[in-house]
Amino acid sequence: MQRLSDTDCRPLGTRVATIGMFDGVHRGHATLIAALRERALHEGRRSLVITFDRHPQQVLNPSSGVRLLQTLDDRLSCLEELSPDELLLLNFTPALAATGSREFMQLLHDRYGVATLVVGYNHRFGHDQPLPLSEYAALGGEVGVTVVNAPEYLGEYAPVSSTIVRGLIAAGKVADALHCMGRPYRLAGRVVHGFHNGRGIGFPTANVGGIDPALVLPHNGAYAVMVHLDGHELQGMVNVGTRPTLDNGTQLSIEVNIFDFDGDIYGHPIALDFIGFLRLEFKLGSVDELRQQLTRDRDKSREILKQWTMNNV
User: Regarding beta strands 146-149 and 114-119, do their DSSP bridges make them parallel or antiparallel, or are they unpaired?
Assistant: First the structure.
C-alpha cells in the first residue's frame, strides 16, 4: 500500500476512491473499504482511501471538545491493514471545509484521478451537505465522477458508527465497543511516577501518563486489560479514576496492575487494550476492604482475560 500526500497527482480516470474521517476504523469502515476494493477490482482501477489529518469539528467548531478513538498514526495504520492500494491524507483546513460538493469532486477527479467515488451509506461531504445521494450522483456526473453507495454493515452489533463507539467507551461498555470495532479499544502512553500506594497493599501499579488528551477515556472504574510492554503481551487490571479510598485528591489517573510481573518500567512505553468492565469506582471503608475488593477484581479479570485469550489464539 502506498501513502500519498495532498500534493501528489494521479492520471485521470485511474482511481476508485472513498472518503471519510474513519475514526476508530470500525466494522462499518471495514465493510465500506471492502466494497471499495471490490469495485476497484471490477473496474480495473486502483483503490484509494482518502482521510483527514484532524476531525472536521476541530476546525468547524473548536469549542465542541470532540474526543477521538485513535491518534492519527493509529488510524492510518488500521486503514493500511484493510489493504487499499493507496491512502491519501488531506489537511482539513477552513478552506477545505468551505469547499462545496461539486468543487470537491472536481478536485478528486482532476488531481487524484478519481473516476468512481464509493460513498458510505450515511456519509456525505462538502459544505453544502447533507444532500440526497441522487444529487451527489448528479454533481459527480457533471465533473466525470460516478458516485455509488456502499452497502451498510449489517453484522452483529449493527448499526456501527464512530459516534456510537465513543459513547460506549465513555459509558464504560468496552466489551460492546470491542465488538463494534473488531478489536479492543487501546490507550497508549508511558509509565510515569504516581502515588506509590499500590505496592503497600499488595497490588503494585504502573501509572500511565502521556495519553493523547484528544482521546476518549473510559468511564471511571476498573477494567480487565491486555498490557503491551517491551514487546510482551501481559494480563492486568486497570483503574481509571481518582482512587477515592486512598484520598489522593481529585486528579484522574490510569493505574494498571500487571499480573505476575515485577520490574522497574518507569519511562517505558505501554499500551492498554480494554477487554472487559469490572466495576465502577467507589470509596471503600478501609484499606483492608480495598485489598479485598482488588482481590475480587483480579480474580474476575483473570476469568475475562482467559476467555478472551482462548477466543483469540
Answer: parallel
Peptide bond into 159 cis (omega under 30): yes
8 pLDDT more than 70 = yes
Closest to 67 in 3D by CA, of 138, 146, 159, 169: 169
Q: How far is residue 109's CA from residue 124's CA, in Å, rounded to a whole number? A: 17
Q: What pTM does this model have?
A: 0.92
- Among the listed residues 94, 65, 101, 82, the one whose alpha carbon sits nearest the alpha carbon of residue 24: 82
Residue for cell digits 460506549? 168
pLDDT score recorded for residue 111? 95
Q: What is the pLDDT of residues 67-91, one digit of tens each?
A: 999 999 999 999 999 999 999 999 9
Dihedral angle computed from the Cα positions of residues 92, 97, 103 and 108, in that order, rounded to the nearest 10 degrees = 20
CB-neighbour burial class of residue 272 (10 A; exposed 0-12, middle 13-18, buried 19+)? buried
**Domain shared by 42 and 140, yes or no:** yes
Largest CA distance in the chain: 72
Q: Which residue has the cell 486489560?
A: 225
Structural domains of the chain, count: 2
Question: Which CATH number fits the domain that encloses residue 65?
Answer: 3.40.50.620
89 close to 8: Cβ distance less than 8 angstroms: no
Q: Cell numbers at residue 274, please?
A: 480494554
Q: What is the pLDDT of residue 199?
A: 60
One domain for residues 132 and 211: no
Asked if 15 and 144 sit in the same domain, the reply is yes
Report the distance separating Cα 210 and Cα 115, nearest Å. 43
Distance CA 96, CA 104 (A): 8
Q: How many helices (H) and strands (E) in the chain?
A: 9, 12
Helices (H), 113-161: 133-143
**CA gyration radius, the chain:** 23
